[in-house]
Amino acid sequence: MARILCPSRPSPAAFALLVAAALAVAVGGFEHARLFHRGYAEVDVVGPLFLLNGVASAIVVLLLAVERVALFVVGTLLLSITSLVSILISHSSSFFGFAEGGYDTTAKIIVVAEIASVVLALAAAVAASRARSGSRGATSRRVAA
User: What's this model's pTM, rounded to 2 decimal places?
Assistant: First the structure.
């Protein structure tokens, strides 16, 4: 648990992927917040969820800024996957009584941003894990020598 809560500095490659993931999270959150202010505020349940997505996206991005990398990755995955599932449901049936007719440009931007954030966060986690295991391997080789 301490590893998740403590600040950490990933490798340069992992950090680049994390920054790209943060940009994708920010785009998704911005678009949700923009839609909230462009009429979704009037939609019961779903409207406030759009605003919540925008706020949560800002918080998740801030987690990376304060070097809480593991929390950033977990937050990104929870936020983006939940958003993708919600979008899928609202476009295929009804989500809390709300149904979308089709995928307009904004919906497509959100879907691409959410998918990108998931892929990039997972890639960063893999890169960070490889960097950690590589540095441990180098340490044990030096000790053995």
Answer: 0.84
